[in-house]
Amino acid sequence: MRNYKLSIFLGLTTAVAAIAPLPAQAVSFNYDSAQNISARPIESNNKLFFFGTPSDNQGYTAFFNLNADAPDRGHTEFSLNSPGNIAPYYTTGRDKSPEEPPSGATRSATLQNITSGFSNFYNYLTNNNLSLDRIGLSYGQKSDRDFTTTWNLGDDKLGEDWFSSPDSSLEERIYTANPDDVELYLTYDTTKIIDFGYTPFYSFLEYGPTPATVDDSEAILTDPFNASKPAGLNSLTAGLADAFLQDVDSAGGGLQIVYEDVQVEDVGFTTGNGYGVIRIPFPLSLNVVSNTKVPESSLAIGLLIFGALGAVSSRLKK
After folding, report:
1. pLDDT at 261
2. How many distinct helices (H) and strands (E) make up the chain?
3. Going by fewer Cβ within 10 Å, which terminus of the chain is more open, N or C?
């Protein structure tokens, strides 16, 4: 039987006993050996921490064509100390997964904690007796698009869409999409309250000094992206969206997703629509940053995406 192991964002708490702002937390993944993707976590004191697990019918999925000859099969890992598994070609939120039967999920992750920088958003929640767990985050293909339009590895070409060497234990991946086909957003219950702009996702998979999984780590980053309020909200949800946007505007105007370096066990595998689907917990930090994109390496130009994943570094180990 195969076990799925991957590394997840550091420093998340899973308790939601009360709404209490937390101090900002520092990131820890070592990016020193990354040579091809220039994205890095941007310092921020304004963060929202989200978490979703497959057992709670949340999280995200990384999937690949079960046909070994299909162009969206995904490449085979060959970095130093990697297990030689398939790198999933696509990534999307659990609520947009191709698995069969459908998951019935309504979001990818749930808000767990807020740093003190999100004062307007925090105060609006507390003043209106709104719990954090009513705020969700989702991403993936739009509802009227096929799941194959979600973030993916493009042509899956070594040196363009991913970077690896048998002499290095690091693999770098770039997941991209047509911006018109995908969405990334916040919800209040099931109502969309914030639309985010398009961003690529960058996945850094470090397989460590040995073939064992215990020394592996992973980071997933985005470029800075913007935020806007959709039309048609009622007074409660419009006020909530406005409070969020005020905090973002006052602290830099942009946002970045950071996912880093913690091992989790709640990972599962299923199939659907001819694809192998890996269901993965989704801890992440949504950070307010300056709305200026990090310059990309000349080798890593293009539309990039939510790394899903490498999401899956998805170390399938026997």
Report:
1. 63
2. 3, 20
3. N
